[in-house]
């Protein structure tokens, strides 16, 4: 019997032994430093949370910026920067007054003009923002602390749109930063949020440092999900980029880091057996893993090739590498996720245990596939995504597709996603990503459910589907929305806007001295404390 290096590590760690590795963090660590939290996070390469839909960029946004409204633990919108708000009798004019104490990290006050500019910039790229801009007659400053949104017609979901954590979320920036087009990055990192980004200690590719914003004034409400008072109980948080899971887990065991955002399933047993460590699921609904195909380039500009991928995928096989423990992984066949009220089984006859490789092979042939290179973006620092990308390449090669992996860290994947050109010019064919299951219940804001051709990378486009999606915000009853969801899903699985790989409800790992983590889909650093 041959034992691989990976199996050897797994056995050793399962037995409770820390892997012996030269420390890369020990020089930074002080045993008495209970006011600094060290966190192993994804590699942050883009800092503008409106420019990028990358999850780690949104978590950077939560630390540095603030929002007009936030979601509480029941996913209901609550005022955050807004102190008071009201709506006219005809439901067409909303007035918002900022709460006291809001200030930018550079010492200047937050004004209504900042909010107006931020809403307009967000409205250029976010699905919910685009809907708002279509319906808006005017968005304007009334005075330094007050602004209004005047609508052409009522939009009952307006407050929900302003509060959504769908990508990108509405983070409020300084007016001079928000004046940039959403296609150009803001680089200043000056927000009004509970943490300040420490430019002097920034070490791209290695670590980023966030310091408590001593001038931040929390709202008066108790903390509740991402809403309520953002009470910062540490002085500093350091995000370390440790791509190797073995090294990251060893650092957690040694006390050199306090938090590991995505521990490898290989090391769950070692973490659970360590009396100083704990696994904790922050996002109870988990993420729907998704395979995005480039609609603009061969072979996936052809619907037959996209349908081939729908039949090729064996979700259970992908879950075995993305969520190996059955209690953390589930198949998903609805574009509306597993846990939303609109999940349904319309047009899901393609789903088959084990997939249907022969059907996939036939559909590629019908698409006129002629051996074109299919480039799969391969995130080497996201273990589940890396393993799934390798499995995908192997399955494609089995049916005669010329699949090639393009390995890089996640930051490289994010950067390359924006390239709409052919693979010969640095473009791509497929990448694997994920989004929250609960967000799939709102096609107005869910990035996966945009088929306008201008949305999230992959750029799916279907006019019939989009005509139905445009009705969502105006449908009044739950039963009408359920019927609309079925119609939308029938069309989606015909033109194959994407391919779902399963639902993963995955734990983070932490040292037990780190407590009071917020159990919401995004990693938020306020409220946490370290003994």
Outline:
With 531 residues, the chain is α+β, with helices and mostly antiparallel strands. The protein is 27% helix and 19% strand.
Architecture overview:
With 531 residues, the protein is an alpha+beta fold. It is 27% helix and 19% strand. The chain has a 7-stranded mixed β-sheet. Strand 6 (136-143) and strand 7 form a beta hairpin. Helix 9 packs antiparallel against helix 11 and helix 14 (463-469) packs antiparallel against helix 15. The radius of gyration is 23 Å and the shape is globular. The protein starts with a helix and ends with a strand. Mean pLDDT is 92; it is low at 1-32.
Strand content: 15-25%
Distance, first to last CA = 46 Å
**Sheet of most strands:** 7 strands, mixed
**Radius of gyration over C-alpha positions, nearest whole angstrom:** 23 Å
| Overall morphology | globular
Average pLDDT, to the nearest integer?
92
Low-confidence stretches: 1-32
Helix content: 25-40%
Describe the secondary-structure layout:
Elements: H1 5-14, E1 36-40, H2 55-64, E2 69-71, E3 77-79, E4 82-87, E5 93-98, H3 112-122, H4 127-135, E6 136-143, E7 146-151, H5 158-163, H6 175-178, E8 195-197, E9 207-212, E10 236-240, H7 245-254, E11 259-260, H8 268-273, E12 277-280, E13 287-293, H9 303-312, H10 315-322, E14 329-330, H11 357-366, E15 374-379, H12 383-398, E16 403-408, H13 410-417, E17 430-436, H14 463-469, H15 478-495, E18 499-504, E19 508-511, E20 514-515, E21 529-530
Parallel strand pairs: 1-10, 1-11, 15-16, 15-17
Antiparallel strand pairs: 2-3, 4-5, 5-7, 6-7, 8-9, 9-10, 11-19, 12-19, 13-17, 13-18, 14-18, 20-21
